[in-house]
Design goal:
1 helix
Length: about 100
């Protein structure tokens, strides 16, 4: 996927685009049927705001875990679902990663 641009594809069509962050890399794995996106330049509060925007778009939070790492930063993992789309988000020290899977 093109660096710096939010991708338009069958995986991202059903989810809102984050308001902040820069796309570092991303790809679609056709064998496992998921899209992976990795963004930088996103604060923890912006990550939390994005999770809230997914909830406003109809997603339900299935699970959330967080852990402080070496008293330096917090690692947060969140799994959300809506209809047949699952979004797994991990955030750690300004790196925001997400897996999007359709057809569960």
């Amino acid at each position: 996927l093109d660096v710096g641009e939010w991708p338009q594809n069958e995986y991202t069509d059903n989810i809102p685009q984050p308001e902040s962050g820069t796309l570092l890399r991303g790809w679609i794995d056709p064998a496992k049927e998921f899209c992976y996106l990795e963004l930088s330049d996103i604060a923890q509060t912006e990550s939390e705001q994005y999770v809230e925007s997914l909830k406003k778009a109809g997603f339900s939070e299935v699970e959330k875990v967080s852990e402080e790492v070496n008293n330096n930063y917090v690692s947060v993992g969140t799994l959300l679902t809506c209809d047949d789309t699952s979004v797994s988000i991990s955030y750690i020290d300004d790196l925001f990663c997400m897996y999007i899977k359709n057809g569960q």
